[in-house]
Amino acid sequence: MAILNAKDLTLQYEQRKVVEGLSTEIPEGKVTMIVGANACGKSTLLRGLSRLLKPAGGAVTLDGKDIHTRPARELARTLGLLPQHPTAPDGITVRDLVGRGRYPHQGFFRSWSAADDAAVQRALEATDTFGLAERSIDELSGGQRQRVWIAMALAQETDVLLLDEPTTYLDLAHQVEVLDLVTDLNRSRGTTVAIVLHDLNLAARYADHVIAMKGGRIVAEGPAIDVVTEELVFNVFGLESRVVPDPISGTPLIVPIGRHHASPVSTNELEIAS
Amino acid sequence: MKLSTTTTVQGRGSGTLVPAGPGGISPDASAPGRGSGSRGTAGKRTAWLLAAVVVLAVVSAASLAIGARGLPLNTVWDALTNFNPEDGNHAVVIARIPRTVLGLLAGVALGLAGAAMQGVARNPLADPGILGLNAGAALAVVVGIYVFGIGSLTGYIWFAFIGAAAAAVVVYAIASRGRDGATPVKLALAGAALSAGLFSLMNVILVSSQDTLDRFRFWQVGSIGGRDWSVLLPALPFLAVGAVIVLGGGRVLNSLALGDDIARGLGQNVGLARGIMALGIVLLCGSATALAGPIGFLGLVIPHAVRLLTGPDYRWILPFSLVSAPILLITADIIGRVILLPGEVPAGIMTAIVGAPVFVWLIRRGKGAGL
Amino acid sequence: MTALKSAPETAFDADTSPKHPDHLQLRRVLSPTFFLRPTFFLGLAVVVMFAVYVLLGSYTVTIPDFFTIVINHLTGGEKIPGASFIVMEHKLPRAVVGTMIGVAFGLAGALFQTMLRNPLASPDIIGISYGASAAAVTAIVIFGASGAVVSGAALGGALGVAAIIYAISRGGSGAGGGSRGNAAGNRLILAGVGIAAALHAVVNFLMTRADIRTAADALIWLNGSLNSATWDRAGVLAVSLLVLVPAVIALAGPLRILELGDDAAAGLGIKVNAARLGLVLTAVALAAVATAAAGPVAFVAFLAGPISRRIVRKPSLPASALTGALIVLLADFFASNIAPVILDGTVLPVGVITGALGAPFLLWLLVTSNRKEA
């Protein structure tokens, strides 16, 4: 069981309240996408959910118990986080880095066991980085490096996995690859996944549950088809759009309007243009 | 046109140059109403500048009056206008003149150089001490004393010049290698590391020769006392040239502050601009160090204090720094004269004592955190 | 309606047994020995150097004589005139203290460099040494102290400055969401550099307030010297190391995780602030204790890490410790035995050698490390 809950959560930096009085539940065993405009508090929410940020008010509970009262290492066995800008020490190999994800499972005397090996192996294969295992992480491309970080998070083998913008800097193919991978994880292991994603279309496609935020508050949550509507897009992003069903997945697809394309092209004009 | 979020973005109106994190715009920390160059503000700034000049004059006068022997201001006036060689008091005043002038000159040099250095290095924490220039000058002076037997301050000047210039080149060259160029941290570390290295080399000589140590330790401390005109005059041309170069560079510094790419897009020849400004900086720093020994923190603190009033426009920062730095230096010197009677605390120490807490405050406010 | 293709084979359904079991296990068996080998030789080198230091030099002692001296000293037997004194009161304590401060500085430097994620960070550079120096020089110049009092002052100064720097780097503007894990580390570096500069000014000032003899003495201390190595000092050092080295071992695990950034480390279950505090305290204590014993021996803390990395080919705390010891022993051997030959009899303090040889090496490291930093 791994139900992650926020009750009346208030999060702030110094004196500045970013999230106030927010309550939500991350549905177990599903892929949740957290979306919103820049600086709406979605990363902050994730940090609050993952124990990085202590709540100024309210509480975050995992299975009913406040996450801040649990020992850090024990919590890390159930709740994993991939932050936005992870740093890797110079010259570390892929295998070594992924192996560090096993830390929460190792006792004080840090004995490395066969189970750790197996977990690392699984993680490497799942992210298709096994071939890179002995390479130094400095030599890898952005996409490869991101997959390695995800492998590290996978090696942690938690019930809940939080990912903060895991697709930044990746080209479209790699973005899709990462999201497919995360979906695999969810389908085969039942891992609860919560992702902060800036690309609304990809979020709508891959989400079982969407949380849309604005100004530190949740404006809508639920299945993508209910949440991602033209009104929501306008409300949250200030963008006029059309929402149509995605021809591949059937999920909502946002087509932005903008100033230069205000009137939809009619089929006649299309014929003339081509 | 959307700027890529990975390049350095100038904070709107604030004096800091902090990269906006990708995926989010860092909240604007500037105070409202700090736009550059509207007519009203220009008038206000000129008023402040004039006020600063007045303060400078007052402080200079005070410098002539205060000291181990405190003199009333009318005596000072007398001495300047109606000099009477028999009068002991007058002699004291006259003796204090070179000191005051030196404070003015060194202050001007360090203030301008500090502001320019921060602009060229795009780094709010630049200062000749922190960037290793003082260590370079010091090592050169020690070598001069030990190897060439230089004993006079005039002799020191040339060595200090060359040493400071060499150190500057090395520090900047080293810190700029690597993908992100000369970041504040890399510059600080390169400067500190080079300083440590140069000081060690210096110590080899000092440990072997007590004589050298004896002469050197007084120069090392950074003081504007004890010098006379024969020291000031040789340095003057260099100082003047440096000051002209830097003062003329206000616009250049403004465009450099936007980042190399944008500056080039605006038609600036970045390499040449930097080189010329660097030349001016080295001339200024070299002169100041040569005249007064290594005085730290002045070049760091003054431009920041000044920015609170002027905003990020270098065309204002430079003249304000030019006037404010001597105010601070001379004041530090005055305090040093009276705080530890009958001895003196050299100005270099006082500026460090004031400068360090300000530096710390700057770091805590995140101004150094353009990382 | 979601259109899932019929149950694609997910990567997790694949065979999860290690693909090359033999390969993996072989690596694991081999790797401990591989890892130990260069470090083992390093340890051997230290032992050899120790022996050279004690037995050779401007005064040589044969091995049998050496053992006789030591055994007799412990059992109260008869001393060999001259040699006993030199070995027991001079060379041996120097070698022992030198080794221990080398270990302490080496560890402190490696810890700082790893924690601050910068190969150029070191207690020398970030002001802790200057804290010790300022306090010690104050003691020497103003209070006319010497010996243990100076050491005590140095210790206090180092710890005091470290506390200040740490406090500075802890507070300050809170990092926004998505900050890099480096922010606090960089603040620490910058704060340290600034404080170092200020304290340097204070030290310089004190140097002008003293008469030339005292100033010369202070300069020797400032450079780091083993001249006042005694058994008492060795004892204090040994006790401190007995406490601090196990602390390092215990903290090595969390350190490896902290390297991944504060956020990632927290996600892996590290109490970031506590771990970092522990590491800082340990590193500072190591540097402070070593500085108190022998003054701020330049560059040992800074160089031990990078040099050991080039020997052992990976970052390693034990290797750094051993490299530190090696550097100190080598440098002091040179300073006491070879330098006087070159310099007409002046015995140099060990810090001058480490400094003079360290400086060019440092420049080279600066250049190559920046290139790698891309």
Helices and strands of chain B, in order, run as: HHHHHHHHHHHHHH
What coarse outline of chain B follows from CA principal-axis ratios?
Answer: globular
> Helix content range of the residues of chain C, please?
over 70%
SS strand fraction of chain B: under 5%
Task: Report the mean per-residue pLDDT of chain C as an integer.
Answer: 77
Structural category of chain B is mainly alpha
Distance between the termini of chain B: 25 Å
The outline of chain C comes out as globular
What structural category do the secondary elements of chain C indicate? Answer: mainly alpha
| Proportion of helical residues of chain B | 55-70%
Into which percentage range does the β-strand content of chain C fall?
Answer: under 5%
Count of alpha/pi helices of chain C: 13
What are the low-pLDDT stretches of chain C, counting only 5+ consecutive residues below 50? 1-31, 172-181
The counted number of beta strands of chain B is 0
Computed over alpha carbons, the radius of gyration of chain C is 24 Å
**What oligomeric arrangement do these chains adopt?**
heterotrimer
Q: Residue ranges of chain B: pLDDT <50 for 5 or more in a row? A: 1-37
Number of strands of chain C: 0
Major β-sheet profile of chain C: none
Number of helices of chain B: 14
Task: Jot down its keywords.
heterotrimer; A: 274 residues; alpha/beta; 6-stranded mixed beta sheet; 4-stranded antiparallel beta sheet; 26% strand; globular; C: 374 residues; mainly alpha; 0% strand; disordered N terminus
Summarize the structure.
Chain A is α/β, with parallel strands linked by helices and 274 residues long. Helices cover 34% and strands 26% of the residues of chain A.
Task: Give the SSE layout.
The complex is a heterotrimer of chains A (274), B (371) and C (374).
Chain A: E1 4-13, E2 16-26, E3 31-36, H1 42-49, E4 57-62, E5 65-66, H2 72-78, E6 79-82, H3 94-100, H4 114-126, H5 142-155, E7 160-164, H6 172-189, E8 192-196, H7 200-206, E9 209-214, E10 217-222, H8 224-227, H9 230-237, E11 241-245, E12 252-256, H10 267-273
Parallel strand pairs in A: 3-8, 3-9, 6-7, 7-8
Antiparallel strand pairs in A: 1-2, 1-4, 4-5, 9-10, 11-12
Chain B: H1 39-65, H2 73-81, H3 88-120, H4 133-148, H5 153-176, H6 184-208, H7 210-219, H8 229-247, H9 250-256, H10 260-265, H11 270-292, H12 298-310, H13 314-339, H14 347-364
Chain C: H1 21-55, H2 63-75, H3 83-115, H4 128-142, H5 148-170, H6 183-209, H7 212-223, H8 231-258, H9 262-267, H10 272-294, H11 300-312, H12 317-342, H13 350-372
